[in-house]
Design brief:
Layout: H1 5-33, H2 36-45, E1 50-54, E2 63-72, E3 82-91, E4 98-102, H3 113-118, E5 121-125, H4 145-159, E6 167-172, H5 174-185, E7 192-196, H6 208-215, H7 219-234, H8 236-250, H9 260-277, H10 291-301, H11 309-314, H12 316-326, H13 364-376, E8 380-385, E9 403-408, H14 423-437
Parallel strand pairs: 4-5, 4-6, 6-7, 7-8, 8-9
Antiparallel strand pairs: 1-2, 2-3, 3-5
């Protein structure tokens, strides 16, 4: 069928436009037709230095992936080597906010409160040199707060193009410390930081701990604790003989401390710290004294295994970092000096690896961080427990920043959580989250186990 040239050109132009329009429509339909899983896995596949495995469980309403991310040992000098860091991603949706959970030790797989109330994606990061995130050789000089927070920043940079909504950080205990340090070194990575029960020690022997233990609870309870400790120390020989059988059955050895007797004294000295940290009751301390009953109570609250070679190895990286940078606590032996066989001065609760060379911390890092928090630590919501020993070293918020510290009455290290706040405190917490991020908190989900 003949066409005039002009007419043919017009019709050909229409056909090309129609073809382009159809191609665009098919592209859009293809994109929106893909599931979150397909889109997410394609995005993860395109990330450099990342391998991933789908570990989602049947019945979950979200996708879960284990990521192994290649990180430099030294972020300033990548040529010095690498290690693989374990990150667990729980995906709710590309438009949801994202919580980066800053673990202080091995990675925990349980869901956190902030993730739940914001219905957020969660990026859980195992701390370098713990669990699966261990290099071939432990070069201790690379276990620093600076390097650990650079790990977090690198992960944020990798995933922020996938998750473009608000980012929030949170962590508990040493993980809470890490949340604070991360905000200090990379203040623009997150819109809000929520550290839980995070101490900021002022030295290797933070004496605020002693003041706390001398004043917390009732005078009657404090006396009962001290009498309990004295009784065990007076009957040390009998107690240690019984603990030898216990330790043999549990496979515990005490080469690090030097003897089971010394580890026993450490355990007795640790008792009040752990008693308040973990919310023990004065009613549980035996009124009618016997070595067997007192040992049962001691092992429930602070097990001698904490001072065994096995635990020293497991938590060696933690002790190293506390000794080198972040500070810690010790034991005031003044009330017990005449009963002790192994100590003549206050011993430290730090047990760093003997193979490591350590320049002891002067507290300089924490002084710098606390000064910054006082002047620039905005959009931070701290959560502490009124009965938790670590609250002695809590961050005291200044009037110069948009930040708030919530000290939950009667709460300990384990129970100082949003779900256990008084209603008025919860209301203030959620309002501040809304003011600073624009996000709504759904606290009712915390009642769901």
């Amino acid at each position: 069928m003949p066409f005039r040239i002009l007419s043919g050109q017009i019709q050909l132009g229409h056909l090309m436009k129609y073809f382009l329009f159809l191609t665009l429509c098919l592209s859009i339909l293809n994109t929106f037709g893909q599931t979150d899983q397909q889109l997410l896995e394609r995005s993860l596949f395109n990330l450099p230095n990342v391998s991933f495995t789908n570990v989602s469980k049947s019945g979950d309403t979200y996708l879960t992936y284990d990521l192994m991310i290649k990180q430099p040992l030294d972020h300033q000098h990548p040529e010095k080597g690498t290690f693989s860091q374990w990150v667990q991603l729980r995906h709710k949706g590309f438009t949801h906010p994202t919580v980066i959970e800053t673990h202080g030790y091995q990675l925990s797989k349980s869901r956190n409160e902030v993730e739940k109330i914001l219905d957020a994606n969660n990026v859980g990061v195992e701390y370098r040199f713990f669990g699966k995130s261990v290099p071939d050789s432990l070069q201790w000089q690379y276990l620093t707060v600076e390097q650990a927070t650079a790990d977090l920043h690198a992960i944020h940079e990798l995933l922020k193009e996938i998750y473009k909504g608000k980012w929030i950080s949170t962590g508990i205990s040493k993980g809470g410390q890490t949340t604070i340090y991360y905000k200090y070194f990379y203040p623009d990575d997150v819109a809000l930081a929520v550290p839980y029960v995070a101490p900021m020690d002022d030295s290797l022997e933070d004496t605020r701990i002693y003041t706390f233990l001398d004043t917390i609870g009732t005078p009657e309870c404090r006396k009962k604790i001290m009498d309990f400790q004295k009784y065990l120390l007076i009957h040390e020989d009998e107690a240690v003989e019984k603990l030898k059988w216990y330790s043999k059955g549990a496979g515990l050895k005490y080469n690090y401390t030097g003897s089971i007797g010394k580890s026993f004294e450490y355990t007795v000295l640790e008792y009040p710290f752990s008693f308040w940290q973990w919310g023990s009751s004065c009613d549980s301390i035996p009124s009618i004294k016997s070595v067997d009953q007192c040992l049962d109570e001691l092992l429930k609250v602070t097990n001698i295994s904490s001072f065994s070679d096995q635990d020293m190895k497991t938590y060696g990286p933690h002790y190293y970092q506390a000794a080198a940078q972040t500070g810690y606590y010790g034991y005031n032996i003044a009330p017990f000096r005449k009963y002790l066989k192994h100590f003549s001065s206050n011993p430290s609760a730090l047990f760093p690896p003997k193979s490591a060379t350590i320049q002891p911390s002067t507290g300089e890092l924490n002084r710098k961080v606390l000064d910054w928090l006082n002047k620039n630590g905005n959009n931070m919501l701290y959560i502490y427990g009124g009965n938790d020993t670590w609250s002695a070293a809590r961050v005291m918020v200044s009037n110069h920043v948009n930040a708030k510290s919530f000290l939950i009455p009667g709460a300990d290290h384990r129970s100082a959580r949003i779900q256990n706040m008084p209603a008025s405190m919860q209301q203030e917490f959620t309002q501040l989250v809304k003011n600073w991020t624009g996000l709504d908190c759904k606290l009712n989900v915390l009642k769901i186990k």
